[in-house]
Request: fold
Amino acid sequence: MATSSRASSSPSAGPSRKSVAAVAGAWLLVAVCAFALAGCKKILNGGSDEAQFHIRMVNTIEDSPTVQYSVDSTAIATAAYLGNTSSSPAHPGDHTINFAYLPAASLNSSDSTSAVAIGGSFSQSWAQDRDYTVFAYGKMNDPKTTQAYAELVRRRSEFEGDLQNLLSQYKEKHPDVIAKQKQLEDIKRQQDQMINEWKDRIEERKQKLKQLSDPRILSLQTQISMMESDTQRQQKLLGDTNQQIAELDARINAIPNTEVGLEAIDRDYQTKKLNYDNLLAQQQKVVIGADAAKDQQGSGIQVVDPANLPERPVAPKRFLLTAGGFGIGLVLGILLALLFELRRLFTIQTTEDAKHYTNLPVLATIPELMTLAEERSLPRRRALALAAGIVGAIVSIPMLAFVLRFTHLLDKFLT
Reply:
C-alpha cells in the first residue's frame, strides 16, 4: 500500500528555539543510528579489517524456477532464470557451494515451501580480496520444477479457492460451480499430461540407452561367454571325473589294498574342484563388473538433442543459377547488339533514312560498286568472320571456366 503526506507551514518571522532544538535532536538521532548500523555491519562481517572475498550467482538453468545458492549451510541469495544475485561478502578459505530451487507459491497450506536441493554442489578454496561469479547451468527435466507447472499449480490453487467460495454460496449444480469444476479438472488434466509426457520421455531415453553399445560391455559380455563355455567344459570334466571316481570306488570295494590309487584320485578331484571354484568366482566378478558398467552408462549418458535430416537440399541452387545465367546471357546479348548496331544509328543507311533526316525527295541512288576481286572475296570474308566467331566462342568457354574457377564466383551460389 502506498501512502502520501503533505506538509504545511504558516508564515512567521523566523525559526523558533523549539524548531531548532527539534532539528538538532533529529540530526543527533540519525548520527546515532548510522553509527549503530556501522557497528552491526562490522560485527556481522567479522570486522571491516578482516579478509573477505565477494561472490555472486548467475542462474542459467533451463526450465528452472527461482534458484537459491548457499555457502556451506548458510543460504545467501536467490535468482530467477537468467537473473543474477548481488555481490555478497564472505571469509576466504575452503567453502562448499550448494544449489536448491524454491517451489512456487501455493494457496494450499499443505504444499511444501522449503528449498529443494538440485545437486551440482562443489568445493574449492576462495582467495582473499577476489570477486567470484558462480554460473549455475544445466537443465531441469522434472516438470514440477518448470515455470509452466508452477503456473498450473498457482491457477489450481486459485480455482480451488474460488470453488470453495462458490460452494459456500451456491449448490453443486449451479452453473458457476459446474464451470469452475470444469476449469479445475482441465488444470488437473494438464498437470497429469505434463507428468505422463515426462515419464514417457524418461522411458524413451531408457530404451535408447539400452540400444546403445559400449565397448566395455561388449568386452565383458565376451568374457562372460568365454567363462560360461569354460564352466560348461569344467562341469563336463567334473562329471567325467565323478564317473571315474564311482568306477574306482567300485573297484576299490572289490579289490583291497588300493589306498595309494585312491589318494591320487582324491588329489586329482580336489585340484579340479579348486579350478572349478576359481572359474565360478571369476564369472561372478565379470557379471558384477558388467552390471556396474551398465548402471554407469545409464546414469552418465543423456540425449540432449536428437539428430535430424535437412528437409531440402542445400546445394546446388538451381533456380538461382538458372536465373543468373539467363540474366547474364540477356545482358551480354544486349551489349553485343548495341556494340554492332550503335554505329549505324548515326549514319544514313537507306533512302528512307535520307528522306527522314533531310526532308528532301530522293532523285536517284548510286548502287555499291565493287570490282570482280571484291565480289569474289566477299563470301570468303563472311566465311572467315563466321570461323572467327566460332573460334572465339570455343576459346572463350575454357577462359570463362578458368576465370570462374580462379575467382570462386560459383561457390557463393552453390553453398
Notes: DSSP finds nine helices and eight strands in the chain.
